[in-house]
């Protein structure tokens, strides 16, 4: 009986201790959960909206063409004695390019001069006879027929002298043609025939080619939709054209639009234009391909930013604007024009606004950013 009571008291004590513990645990505050670390900032580069003048270019593929190219040919046949030039030389009008053996043509000239002297003597004798026949005919010692015959002889000899003069002129020209000179200013190409060879007059290959380098032309094409704005711009001013290297993109020379072709190619839907360049540094080489940039107008004092900052979305164009707390917000914009790497903004931004230039793919509204140095 005594042991039963003792066990009961022990059990009650244990229950009281456990109950107290339960109350203390229920009354103690819960340990707060650890908060998640914020995502890292997205590295980006930024640019500011600015105001500037923006030139509007139309760009077409062009080919450099010389204004004049001459294949120098011999006008008389003979042995080529000398070519006193170096391939690739710059030459001017009158520079001697080739010498043909002149001796056969000098001999022909000498013969023509001798023939003229002979015919002059015959004419002088015929005129003396005519004077005598005229005196005799006036005294009826010579017939009228003899006088007429002698007058015809004088006329024939006079005509022969005129023919001699023409022959002498032709012989002199042929002799001059043995000395071949440059017909234009330009650069020489490769020599096509060596000294010592017999060359024929007007040989198809010629002796050398002279190409005018300064000034020089570029023929380029544009889509037919550009014809109206180009004509309108050209009607009010002389349009500037830039010749740009296709690979490096550097400006090779600046010239002006010379003319617009009078037809549109129905096969390609393009029209041709011709621009003239001074080419003082000879950066434009005949036959080379370049990009021709035709300046049709200039937008004055407009809002601009780099074109790659503008993104294309389902709802239109937008940019990410940088807020003072280094987060971004998506802002819809409208473009008035895109000129190469520059976008002209019509609405949605103000001057000085900072926008994300690179790194947009990881951005959303409210994304925290870190601006990389040099942007």
What's the quick description here?
The chain is an alpha+beta fold and 375 residues long. The protein has helices at 2-27, 103-138, 144-177, 227-236, and strands at residues 42-48, 50-66, 69-72, 78-82, 90-91, 96-100, 179-181, 186-188, 198-199, 208-211, 216-223, 240-244, 251-265, 270-277, 289-306, 311-313, 316-322, 328-332, 334-339, 342-347, 354-358, 369-371.
Describe the structure.
- With 375 residues, this protein is an alpha+beta fold.
- The chain has four domains: 83 residues, conserved putative lor/sdh protein from methanococcus maripaludis s2 fold; 99 residues, Efflux pump adaptor protein, beta barrel domain (Elongation Factor Tu (Ef-tu), domain 3, Beta Barrel), CATH 2.40.30; 57 residues, OB fold (Dihydrolipoamide Acetyltransferase, E2P), CATH 2.40.50.100; 76 residues, Helix hairpin bin (Helix Hairpins, Orthogonal Bundle), CATH 1.10.287.
- Helix content is 28%, strand content 38%.
- The chain is built from four helices and 22 strands.
- It has a six-stranded antiparallel barrel with strand order 2-11-14-13-12-15. A four-stranded antiparallel β-sheet has the order 3-10-8-5, with no helix packed on it.
- Strand 12 and strand 13 form a beta hairpin.
- Helix 2 runs antiparallel to helix 3.
- The longest helix has 36 residues.
- The two termini are 93 Å apart.
- The mean pLDDT is 89.
